[in-house]
Amino acid sequence: MKKQTCTTLLIATFGLAAIAADTSCPASYSLELDADLRPSQHFFPLGMLGGGRFDVLPEIGFNLAETGHCCYAFKAGKPCAIDSSKLASNGMYFPAIWAAHTLYHGGETAHFGPVKRPMNTDGNELKGAQIDYHEQAMRDYVKACAAASVEHVLANPKTKVWAWGIDNEWEPHLNYSPAAMREFRTWLKKEWHGDISALNTLWHNDYASFSDITAPAPDKYRDQPAAWLAWRRFSEEAYTDFIAEYFQAIYQADPASRAVLSKSTQCSLEMTYVSRNRINNHMLLAEKTRPFSRGWFCIDMYGHNDRNAYEANYIWNCIRPTPQQHADGAPEGRVFAAETNNHSGPGFQFAQTFWRYVANGVKGFDFFVMGSFRAFHDYSTFGFIDAYDGQPRDRMFYLSRFANMIHRSEAFWSSALPADNAPRIAMLLPQRDVMLSQDSNRSWWDYGINDRLGLYKRLRDAGYWIDAIPYNKLEMGYLSRYQALALISAEHLSADECAAITNFVHAGGILLCDTQPGYFDERHQVVNGLDELLGVNIKGVYTGIHFSPDDVWYANANGFVLRADGCIRAELAGAELLNWEDTLRNDKCAWVTARKHGAGTAYWFATRLGTLRAESTPDAAVTEFISSFLKNVQVAPAYYAPDAPMDNLRVEVPLLDAKGNAVAAVASNSSVALEPFTLSLAMPSSLKAPELWWGAADNTRLEPIPFTRDDNGRYHIAMPRIASAGMLYFLADHPPMLGIAVQGDYATAKNDLHTPLLQPGQGYAVEVHIVDPSKRGYAGDLEMAVHPGWRVEPASQPVQQGIQKYLFTVTAPEPTAENFPSFLYPLAVTLRNDQGRVAVGNHNVMVAWDMTRYPSVLSDNPPNGTTLSHNVIRTNATYRYILPNSGKLTEGQEIRDPYQHAATGGNPALNFGVIGRWNLRADVLFTKIPAVCIEFDLQNTYRLDTLRLAKGRKNALRRVAIATSTDGKTFSTPQELDPQAIGLDLSDFAMNGTTARYLRIDLGFAETSATFGEVEIWGRTLQ
Asked: Which residue positions in the chain have pLDDT lower than 50?
């Protein structure tokens, strides 16, 4: 599909001049990009890994793609030789500078000495992109390589850079090298002021000096907790110090000082096994890189619904500055979700997940991954294009609607923040205790036994808004935003952290905590840091044998039906035992205590709240039990719906901009839709929205929503049916927004019942609805741009005062080689006045495809080197080699298919074409074989239109002839082809409508070693 550059068709400066719409240019869909793709301060990046050719992304409203830059030549002291000439000029890039990866193969560097590797506990060197950054030469190499790489990227004026990245998901393993051990011992000596006896007392060891200390292995985390916490803290600080230097090298090499980001992963956050074995501390990384990240934090996340909302929210609270930092000039924090997807989940789940994401601090996306027909591994699992049939998956349609949702109010989404007076609860994510948590033993990718997600879900079921926060947000300026604080397995707290928690409660906050909060300090010394606040003397974990320590109970109206794991011993010291009668009735009943402290209340549960579950009673009983304590102290849920199942309803905290506009994400939490219901929602008292509008994830329309507002400021909203998710718009001072819908009867796309499938040549009415929240009556013109070859009438029409709805007629063309059936075609709408563009919208449709009229690929070839799937009919075609006279290979003869078998995963080369995902040719090698016949079986009879052949890199063709058959027995007279007409790239030969199932290609070679490249057979189904 031919693309033109943005600058040839667009002339604009952020809405101050006219723009001729070009649906292949990302600026057409955004008010925050100019014609040269220069972003405004309100730009919201929307990217896709695997879409770097920008042949698909712009038409669905996307503007960004990741590209890697790994300058292997730098190691040898040579200039970078990476050819970036094929980069698209109609897109922006997020270049990942893979400086450490250039040392993948080890050996010597030209100017920095030998490559130094980290070591495991056995003294064996780690491989791959792992380097020992405790060695100064390695640090210097990475910084120098990074700076040279930036200069090389910027030398190409076609490369439009949004921000920089570094080596992919670079979260190193723990390093036990001699250099690391020297630094660790020096760090410990400083930490302990040279007092080895004090360290020995805590560590239960007898080191003679600091030089004798050894670091504990990851599997010793429970046997040596004090040493383990010290080793982790040292390793995390050393890693983030190095990453900050790495960032600085890139930042300073870029004259524009664009943001630098590290693609951290959610795996190092709370998945206990993985996080213990990867060095990363998101809180430290956010703080130490803030001067070079410009307030961004990048995270790779795969998952859905509650877990991803919880994790994204935590990352946001890591990068958000405290009020004092903000006053000192720190930028507001923003999360860039790079390489993200809802695992391999369905489209409705994609909507539920990502409509909630943007309410939890995500201000940019780089989805993983475009995918393609016949992709494999991750490119099949996570692809937005189905690897089986090349069609857009259901989540691809939601992706295009997601982009439209962002662009209709992009300035809002880029800047809006949770209202400070919105009722919220903070939940500490205590990374020290994650490092010591007991594994679930279900999966490497699982949380620990007493994870916070369990309580998060319970409180969300009750209608509470939850923020997950790091240690450094335990300070009064930050905590003042919250009504309550939850501490789940937060057993290791510093003196300052305990003091901040105590001050929070004294000032009126509510504390919910379990197990042994603050029992240890950050070094693992027993300090009982919160006992006075709680009014209990904690005595440790019960380990007796009279009763199982992993079996305690709470009672409700139905009896002892709430079960938990783990029991903590304690004495009352000023607290009230709330369930003392239950403890007398049942010796396995866990305590619940409460103590007033100043204006607040501290609750303590003598077990693991994250394990609490209902038995012989509805699961909602756990939610009711926990939330009852909050309600007793007037901490009410933020939202409720008396006629909807609360465990299937998620309303995210509304975001508010500086103009007083608010938007709230509302979603179903399962495959069961929410039927119409009444939502009672707490909103900021300053909000004065005269109307409410609903934008569903399943379409691009906007619908007015009835509501009332009571004397307490709560909104009572008549919600429509919610199949997946959507946005509630509370707007009072906001530019117009556009709703778009195709009217009348039409078929729908195979994988999305909400996307029209238009018949070629037939006109369809498209309604554009202008929503004007500010009631300013924008005059001007409403324009619709369509893909080349399509027709729209009228292309533009004037907007009249008081008229909200306008009709256009759109006609799809007959499919051609440049109009693919599997493509999502844009209907891009712009509202323009004499000040420029004031509103944009996009609605994607598809075109019906008559498989008998137009050719498709029949030989099951994936697209070679492009993200755009060509027209395919999956036939499960096979092929075989036939030697002359039915012979067999003799000594010295060889057919190696594919050319590098291990690299292709066993895919046959002639109809696969590339090695893995790197688009390297996978030719078939023939050795000492002067002639061979290749017979393709398409498994059914088709009309053949075109045969496309590529000769391979080692060309020795002297003869090529083709013949066809319907039964595999009788073949047509061979047709000779000119070997010189076959190139390294696919060359076309007409088949003139031959009807066949079998195709034979006779090859003759002039040399003893030769290759042949790829075969594509194009044709169509018969009537």
From this structure: 1-4, 8-19, 904, 917
Identify residue 31 by its one-letter amino acid code. L
Question: By the 8 A CB rule, do 513 and 498 touch?
Answer: no
Greatest C-alpha distance within the chain: 100
Quick one: DSSP state of residue 806?
Answer: E
Q: What is the pLDDT of residue 1?
A: 41
- CA dihedral of residues 190, 196, 198, 200 (deg, nearest 10): 120
Long-range interactions of 900-905: CB distance < 8 A, separation 24+: 905/376, 905/377
For residue 161, give the nearest of 96, 98, 99 by alpha carbon: 96
Q: How many residues does the chain have?
A: 1023
DSSP secondary structure letter of residue 195: -
Distance CA 867, CA 229 (A): 46
Instruction: Please give the single-letter amino acid code of residue 130.
Output: Q
**Stated pTM of the model:** 0.95
In this predicted structure, what is the pLDDT of residue 296? Answer: 98
Beta strand 763-771 with 805-811 is antiparallel
What lies within 8 Å, CB to CB, of 201 at 6+ separation is none
pLDDT for 713 equals 85
Looking at residue 420, its pLDDT comes to 83
CB 742 within 8 A of CB 807: no
Alpha carbon distances (Å) from 716 to 101, 399, 678: 55, 30, 7
pLDDT score of 687: 87
Relative to beta strand 931-950, strand 1014-1020 is: antiparallel
Q: Write the single-letter amino acid at 381.
A: T
- C-alpha 725/C-alpha 651 separation (Å) is 10
Distance CA 356, CA 313 (A): 10
**Two structure tokens written together for 155:** 């030398």
Q: For residue 664, give the nearest of 960, 419, 896 by alpha carbon.
A: 419
Query: Is residue 366 within 8 Å of 338, Cβ to Cβ?
Result: yes
Place of tokens 């700076």: 147
Distance CA 869, CA 861 (A): 10
pLDDT in the model for residue 84: 84
Strands (E), 706-746: 707-709, 715-719, 725-730, 737-742
Q: From CA 129, how far away is CA 70, in angstroms rounded? A: 11
**Can you tell me which residue has the tokens 């440790």?**
540
236 SS3 class: helix
Extract the tokens encoding 90. 């109609």
How far, in Å, are 13, 71, 666, 850 from residue 33 at the CA level? 8, 30, 29, 38
Q: Alpha helix (H) ranges present in 900-989? A: 901-904
> Is the CB of residue 21 less than 8 Å from the CB of residue 6?
no
**Cα distances (angstroms) measured from residue 806 to each of 309, 702, 746:** 38, 14, 20
Ramachandran bin of 57, using left for φ above 0, alpha for ψ from -120 to 50, beta for the remaining angles = alpha
Q: Is 805 exposed, middle or buried (0-12, 13-18, 19+ CB in 10 A)?
A: exposed
Confirm if 924 and 956 have CB atoms less than 8 A apart: no
Q: Is residue 17 classed exposed, middle or buried when 0-12, 13-18 and 19+ CB atoms within 10 A define those classes? A: middle
Inter-residue contact 69 to 81 (CB < 8 Å) = no
> Looking up tokens 């403890």, which residue turns up?
583
Q: What's residue 17's pLDDT? A: 40
Look at residues 576, 590, 604, 454 and name the one whose alpha carbon lies nearest to residue 518: 604
C-beta neighbour count of 635 within 10 angstroms: 20
Cα gap 62→56, rounded to integer Å: 9
What secondary structure, in 3-state letters, does 810-826 show? Answer: EECCCCECCECCCCCEE
